[in-house]
Design a protein that fits this description.
By secondary structure, the chain is an alpha+beta fold. It has one domain: Glutaredoxin, CATH 3.40.30. The protein is built from 5 helices and 4 strands, in the order βαβααββαα. It has a 4-stranded mixed β-sheet with strand order 2-1-3-4, sandwiched between helices. Strand 3 and strand 4 form a beta hairpin. Helix 1 packs antiparallel against helix 5 and helix 4 runs antiparallel to helix 5.
Amino acid sequence: MGCTASVPLGRPGVPTGMIRLCVSGFGISHHTGRAKKIVDTIVQTYPDEYESWYYFDTFGFRPQFLTSIKSELTLEQQNEFKDHNTSPFCWVETPNSRQPFAIGGRDKLCEWVFKHFADNEKNAKILKLCREMPSRRKDAFFNSNQPGTASIFPH
């Protein structure tokens, strides 16, 4: 599979034919944990179309990482997301673009999901996660050491 040139922040290029869903945020956060759960479920449901990439660090997310990832956005998106400073921050990467496409927080990730996934049985688990509010008890603590399914080696 072909990939784009190297991507900043140590992310590998996105393989041809894949869409990478990225979630970054605090290592303990119910909104971030739910966003990760949504993306994990999308990747499990569509493993030949989607891969995941994660960055979780309670102390390094803001301002260091968040500022860095936002600097990779188009100027229009930099302006749109200049005031976003909450956890999580989600975006999409494709093989055809060197710039991430920002989605925003968990709520915006759910809006993106509702636009891109039909309301059918195959997507029921994904959509259910977006329809329910995250639980501080069930979603705040998640495996924040998991890097996602994206290959760590450049293609």
